[in-house]
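Hey, I was hoping to borrow your eyes for a little while. No rush at all, and the record is pasted right below:
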Amino acid sequence: MAESKKKTALKIVTRKPPMEVVGFVINNQMDKTITVESSRLERHAKYGKYMRKSSTYKAHDEKNEAKTGDKVRIFETRPMSKSKCWRFGGVIEAAAKGNVK
């Protein structure tokens, strides 16, 4: 009997890299959670004027490292609670002591 050999192709699963957002911490009063605000410029469809739009995100900060006013990087992750699906990636720039809101 001739043995038939099946060639199995390896299926390579590639994931897209997690989405990354840079913004400023506007609230760090919750335990292990920070609120980050990110702003962008968008052009109005009809009038062409550029308007500043902002979005807020809740991010998981395991070690409570981020302080209010810090410029931080956050990454998309699995949902950790009802409103928290981002994780803290690190402080880019610490807030100046006099510029905290």
Q: What stands out?
A: The chain has one domain: 20-93.
